[in-house]
Input
Amino acid sequence: MRFLFIFCLCFCCSFLHAQKAVTDSFQVKLLVDSINRGIDNAVVKKDLSYLQQHYADDFRFFHATGVIDSKSSWLNSVKANQMLSRSNDSVMVELHGNIAVVTGTLTVRFPKQATRKGYAVLYIRVFTLKGKLWQLVSHHSTAEWEVEDN
Output
């Protein structure tokens, strides 16, 4: 009887521990997704302090056009460009310890007076946990197409 009690206790504890790990990973995925979307909002608002915080120093941006930006050159581009919105769709976050791989579709729209109205890209982003802060290390746009006006 004592063996059965110990077995049940161990089983319940391991089940609860597994449930906590699932909940924790869900919370981390929500956090990374929030930062991912926050980065795009910060680009539109030109919130350079948020971007400085969440782009790693060795950040690389691989555009679908073949252009590659460093953190510095991308932030200079953010300062110079006017964007109406950057919205994410079909976002998935995949965790691997202190690495998060994020995939999705990003639609970028420009003000009416701009020569280009908007485009969408499929992307892959890699975040790493540095200390207690998730930072974007790499963005790869894998496909790009023009979008119609709303």
